[in-house]
Amino acid sequence: MRNLTHLERLEAESIHIFREVVAEAENPVMLYSVGKDSSVMLHLARKAFYPAPPPFPMLHVASGWDFHDLLVHRDRTVREYGLKLIIAQNEDAEAQGINPFDTGSALYSQAQLTDPLKRALTAHGFDAAFGGGRRDEEKARAKERIFSFRTAAHRWDPKNQRPELWNLYNAKKAKGESIRVFPLSNWTELDIWQYIALENIDIVPLYFAKPRPTVERDGMILVVDDERFRLEAGEEPVTRSVRFRTLGCYPLTGATVSEATEMSHIIQEMLLATSSERQGRAIDKGQSASMEDKKQEGYF
Amino acid sequence: MNTPSSFQTDALIAEDIDAYLHQHQHKSLLRFITCGSVDDGKSTLIGRLLYDSKMIFEDQLAALESDSAKHGTQGQEIDFALLVDGLAAEREQGITIDVAYRFFTTEKRKFIVADTPGHEQYTRNMVTGASTADLAVILIDARKGVLQQTRRHSWLVHLIGIRHVVLAVNKMDLVGYDQATFDAIVSDYRAFAEGIGITDFTAIPISGFKGDNITALSANTPWYAGPALIEHLESVDVDNAAEQAQPFRMPVQWVNRPNLDFRGFAGLIASGTVRVGDPVRIVPSGKTSTVKSITTFDGDLDEAVAGQSVTISLADEVDCSRGDVIAAAGDPPQASDQFCATFVWMDEEALKPGRGYWLKLGTQTVTATIQPPKYEIDVNSREHLAARTLGLNSIGVAEFATDRPITFEPYETNRQLGGFILIDKYTNATVAAGMIAFSLRRAENVHWQPVSITREDHAGMKNQTPRVLWFTGLSGSGKSTIANEVEKQLFLMNRHTFLLDGDNVRHGLNRDLGFTEADRIENIRRVGEVAKLMADAGLIVLTAFISPFRAERQMVRDMLPEGEFVEIFVDTPLEVAEGRDVKGLYRKAREGKLKNFTGIDSPYEPPENPEIRVNTVDMTPEEAARYIIDRILPLK
């Protein structure tokens, strides 16, 4: 007799989900944001189909304001594992005058993230997309299914979800409809970090503390990642040892002051932390059901 | 005295994170469900567990405090329930309306909690939440005692096969922590539980709101000597041993074939243990082989157990694909195309006996038809009620037939191979969840008689390609007239044909059937089966039936080899058909003398993509027949 640990159970469940989708969907894709959850998801996808490579491409929705280190990590990972990468980006952002400094967060995330994502899904005809969402992240996520349906217009209807029983997933859908699949639904932030540590998963160095040029604005510490960062009058970048708990567009993602350069110390800080990981994201602020509204619009 | 709480200790995290991580990497997982009525304090209890396990951060707490002031029901105190009431719409109503999953962890275990609502109409959600749970916490309001809902939830929990039951007598603070009250409730519950087959449960007096006996024993209940809730949840046996002691079964999810040298069968082991060298049998084909290797990303294994996702390679080149089950050679599961099951209906649209639904069990998806229920079970009294169908949130027992044998085990023996879902073929909604009780003997005993003269031989002898020309359309649309004309012309071309219509079927084969929806479905099913046999005999079969429902036409299509079913839509508008009214039926229907008449008080679902469509307004029957024949020739 062998007792499986909680991480072994979660891993087996995620692998099962990956395989069900590949067996039943016609044209799946994995949303690869290059963050820690995506890294765990990619690791699980590689396990699910080993010795074959994951039989689907990666789709990265790049806002154009991604951290430099993140893009380097993305390209290296794709090369190393022989993955197919599709990049979705709003090429007209500059002409439309959209940027993270002047544009309101709702319009910005719609124009730079949600719309390019929807366009890419439609253009490639993907009928299933893996996302790294976890139910512990946010109240609206706690009730989302593992297989979550989207209308042809990519909308989510929280009142009309299919019941999910045992480990039987109903992947049937009409033409034009698609499924968002969340293999990490039952993982928590702590599980993710423990698994990264246990499996030695390579993650973007931004999660580790390092002296970085920063400014403090509206209670958030922002990293001046490149010369496009617009300094306000009197602002002078200060070098601080910081790291990130979550990665979004760099001018919108708050860093935390930290000396943690090792995995165990990151986990230690997380466990002792007093704020939740999404707090570092300007996009989630606003009324408390805002994530639900965005999800209905097609956000992941 | 308080027992020490085993929630995470900040001291260890701060002092020795490596020791902490090591400890937490060996935790097990327990999934449980909480059941209770609307006011039993379920959300408050879960909120309390999250709060005490430090799964709530300061920013969430701040949001909670402001939410509590705005929506809360606890005055100035923090309303823990708001932590778990997720979607905006339900927050407005102040109730949870769906299944939500919550997570918390202690030093010994990670917990996944399915939070399900307690209203009468949400049997569906409870069954969904319970399907993945190892344990159920049944909440009772100490002031109210065992209620109808308590009995209903307990029975559902037992039905879904949850073996561990905790009776949490909540709101003890509101009855002055009175032992007599607690004892009376427990004894009341025991009498009921034993009656439905729950032989064992653990009763704990708690207050979710005040925190008594949640993480530690409370000074307010000195008379209680059992474990605190968390302590109990941490120590319940999670059945690894029982699962692994069963015979080996792995439903094949996907065949992994990255190159010519490797062919592996990927799946999640449903039960038992498998070792390299073990003899295995592929079900339903019955072919045997031995396990050559158990491949994982982390290296080959010598042994794998229930609950692991692996890839198995076999020593022989045997046929095996998605839907097959790899099983212990000496003790394989059964395969049958007929079985009896208990099922829960989960859709607004009621069950249609006789209609084909997708049935998914393990990795198998087949078409299943369901007989009218033997009975419905009243969730409150557990009485057996006569039923012709099942509506939303009803539970019943019926016989199921599938279009090909499926591999299964009774649900009681194996949840993974005994539980199934039904999917509506048109809306794609998950409409029911079922649990197989037993195989019907008659299915096991009817083996296909291998025939030496094949359907190809039959057709070859007649020098033609079999077809089923399925005419569908409103009453009076001209189906029979056109079909008759098509048959005449084919006959002149020396084709072997046969026309099935209402006249030669309703008076004989189907004379026991009326015109209710269920009977009309059965009528079409039988016609489909007869047409299939005739096509097997090499004939070109013409059928002229209204066949108003897409699902049944699809069912017949699915019975036949690809391309053999030709759907011909005799597209006559209702007003034209009614204007003709050859048999005077429309008039009678309009006068209310004829019930369930298609087009009047029963729907007609026109084909979406018929192979052939004929317009009888612009064409004579002869022209329509010619038009059809031009499209189906050469038929050789």
Describe the protein:
The complex is a heterodimer of chains A (300) and B (636). With 300 residues, chain A is an alpha/beta fold. Helix content of chain A is 35%, strand content 14%. Chain A is built from 9 helices and 10 strands. In chain A, strand 2 (58-61), helix 3 (68-81) and strand 3 (85-88) form a beta-alpha-beta unit. Chain B is α/β, with parallel strands linked by helices and 636 residues long. Chain B has a 7-stranded antiparallel beta sheet, with no helix packed on it. Chain B has a 6-stranded mixed beta sheet with strand order 2-3-1-4-5-6, sandwiched between helices. In chain B, strands 16-21-18-17-22-23 form a 6-stranded antiparallel β-barrel. The N and C termini of chain B lie far apart (89 Å). At the A-B interface, helix 1, helix 2, helix 6, helix 7 and helix 8 of A face helix 1, helix 2, helix 4, helix 6 and strand 2 of B.
List descriptors:
heterodimer; A: 300 residues; alpha/beta; 6-stranded mixed sheet; 9 helices; 10 strands; globular; B: 636 residues; 7-stranded antiparallel sheet; 21 helices; 28 strands; 30% helix; disordered N terminus
